[in-house]
């Protein structure tokens, strides 16, 4: 079933795109990640131009985050004050990311930059997740569960001025720290089409010192607003959002997330992290091949 994508300017198999969205949604439900950091590279591997893949994936992440935010609100798992500061930083970062996107696009380097950043991000994150999951599995087999680290914010965060009390998170820190963190994820959202949760969640835990009870909900709160804002920024500046592509992805991811959440209850967390780490590293390796592998014939001429 071929379908024409007006912005990407090519025809794709609609069932393949829906299946891709379903797979990413399945991973989202199983592993508790937004899935945006896998959607864009998988679309690129399929043949979608990187600019369109990044812009359209952001809109898909927005839709996929709605139900998660409401679920966490119902159990009081969102720090709205912290989320508002993160959203403010993310919106400013989105504007900066749009400028950087347009700058690289005008010089014909945006596709290469997106691929390189993805290889570096996925390679480093996948490597860290692999190390952590292997350590957790070894500790579980030896009957010695890993110690939970003491919750505290980073010394650099403690040195920042103008402290506020974030009552729901139990923190007394400068709002500049989450503002800067939100700015960085906002840039990534526009540039790479990711929600930023795979960076935001560990940063909120290990840099800001937030409790795990409110981390995921607050992260989704920020992702929801920032990805929606980034989609509007893309639509008005880069004009790379393909609504047909985004709708197909969202259709598959909503169904996949529900099934993935049920499957997650049947597996151990460390085994899930190990599987996700391996998948992330495979995607990173495939994108690295796309950058480094030189075809036998760079140009080909076909006689009619």
UniProtKB/TrEMBL annotation:
Compartments, record wording: Cell membrane; Membrane
InterPro entries: TM_pro_TauE-like (IPR002781), TSUP/Inactive_protease-like (IPR051598)
Origin superkingdom: Bacteria
Keyword entries, A-Z: Cell membrane, Membrane, Transmembrane, Transmembrane helix
Transmembrane segments: 12-33, 53-73, 85-106, 112-134, 179-200, 207-231, 243-265, 272-293
Family under the similarity heading: Belongs to the 4-toluene sulfonate uptake permease (TSUP) (TC 2.A.102) family.
Protein name: Probable membrane transporter protein
UniProt source species: Sphingomonas canadensis
Lineage: Bacteria, Pseudomonadati, Pseudomonadota, Alphaproteobacteria, Sphingomonadales
